[in-house]
Amino acid sequence: MSKxxxxxxxxxxxxxxxxxxxxxxxxxxxxxxxxxxxxxxxEIKRDKNIFERFYLIHAEYTVNIKFIEINxxxxxxxxxxxxxxxxxxxxxxDRQEIRRGRLYVVTDYFDESxxxxxxxxxxxxxxxxxxxxxxxxMSREGKCIFWYGPEALELERQGWTMSPL
Length: 165
Description:
Elements: E1 2-8, H1 11-23, E2 26-30, E3 32-33, E4 54-58, E5 67-70, E6 73-76, E7 84-87, E8 90-92, E9 97-99, E10 101-106, E11 108-110, E12 116-118, H2 121-136, E13 147-148, H3 150-157, E14 161-163
Parallel strand pairs: 1-13, 9-14
Antiparallel strand pairs: 1-10, 2-4, 3-6, 4-7, 5-6, 7-10, 8-9, 11-12
């Protein structure tokens, strides 16, 4: 099982979310590495104009971090690790477009024996507080499944495209 928030954020909205995430103790790590060790990122931000994902971990919950080897690269195992997947929104100024971002956390998973395993309770409490707090920075229109940062919502009203891809 899992929880997620799908959202559209302007750069200013994204900066506010990054500040909130830092205050919650989130540490950004790359989704893949040449070794079985975490590759820490400098900031909780995407590189300019690149639609990419990375993970947010908390220093207290690094015991349960695992990797999957694929083509001589070690990928963060989101199913078996205590981490939150983070796809920042991607703002494309010249096209007046914002691409969807996402915070996603796996809460339970099936092990090799097909037993349902619940992740560490302390990690799940932290992850839940991150998702709840992130929602407080955003709003939804009606029954829409997407959340909007305040500036992104204004940009949509001005005719910008919000792309769910």
